[in-house]
Amino acid sequence: MTRSEISLAYEDKGTDIDTDTETSRVPLVLVHGHPFDRTMWDPQLAEFSAARRVIAPDLRGYGASPVVPGITRLSDFARDIEALLDDLKVDAFVLAGLSMGGQIAMDCYGRFGDRVHGLVLADTFPAEETPEGRRARNDMADRLLREGMRGYADEVLDRMVAPYAAPEVRAHVHRMMTAAPPEGAAAALRGRAERPDYRGLLTRVTVPALVVVGADDAFTPVSDAEDMHALLPDSTLRVIDGAAHMPNLERPEEFNAALGEFLARVDGHA
Q: CATH no. for residue 96?
């Protein structure tokens, strides 16, 4: 597959060198979900960039990155990320993705897994789409192009984050959804409708993995996380109480604690 020609917008904060000990820490790459942008990872950028390099791109079609109408397959997103990391000269990293971002992370592992030192899969699932799911995603893509993002955002807010989530978190999530370009979101939905089955890939992952899920996630329930945990040869499962589909925003302290423990383990093996 040819190199991506898309130039992604991104955050690149921190350093991979611990100035106190002159030891290196593995960079962290964060892949957001649909229909969000890199600000989804604000609590993690703030927490972890103090001690390591953290890179969070806007995927194509979202945030400040270029919008490419049509169909954006998960492999297209993965190719974009590979090109960005090539340009930034990041050869080894921990790769974390939430929801669609987790599926993109799986595709990345299949494409350039030799560079991935740890894999974090949050509130996601690896199975291919069902026929009903394909129709629903394509119908939703048509609707977003026809109506824009606000109606969709209003409808799904209470599933993206729990109704009891902090008002500022709910406002942030709703703002990201309504700001997403409909053409980019629709292209991603059409691409996800055609996604492959990653379950076989997960059984071949040779690096440590962390599976995280909100206890009240209705999109990707705890049972999906348990299934992924069972497939991965070396994984830890963390269920975050008091959170739905976006525990990194809803319960950032608990999410960061789980991620921090995992990063320390990967650093120790790097």
A: 3.40.50.1820
Domain that holds residue 199: 10-269
Looking at residue 116, its amino acid is V
Structure-block tokens of residue 252? 């950032």
Whole-angstrom Cα distance, residue 261 to residue 154?
35
Helix, coil or strand: residue 66: coil
- State pLDDT tens for residues 178-213: 999 999 999 999 999 999 999 999 999 999 999 999
Token code pair at residue 137: 């995603």
Q: What is the mean predicted confidence (pLDDT) over 132-154?
A: 98
Helix then strand then coil, % of the chain, to nearest 5: 50, 15, 35
CA distances from 225 to 44, 76, 214, 240 (A): 21, 25, 10, 12
How far apart CA 4 and CA 151 sit, in angstroms, is 33
For residue 64, CA distances in Å to 88, 103, 151, 181 come to 18, 21, 22, 10
Residue 95, φ and ψ in degrees, nearest 5: -110, 125
Q: How confident is the model at residue 134 (pLDDT cuts 50, 70, 90)?
A: very high
Domain-embedded: residue 5: no
What is the rounded distance in angstroms from the CA atom of residue 90 to the CA atom of residue 34?
A: 25
Q: Domain for residue 256, yes or no?
A: yes
Which residues are registered as beta bridge partners of 95? 29, 119
Instruction: Let me know if residue 4 belongs to a domain.
Output: no
- In a domain, residue 1? The reply is no
Please state, in angstroms and as integers, the Cα–Cα distance from residue 84 to each residue in 77, 78, 205, following that order: 11, 10, 23
Quote the number of domains for the chain.
1
Give the percent of the chain with pLDDT over 90.
Answer: 93
Indicate if the pLDDT at residue 20 is higher than 60: no
Give the span between the Cα atoms of 132 and 57, in whole angstroms.
31
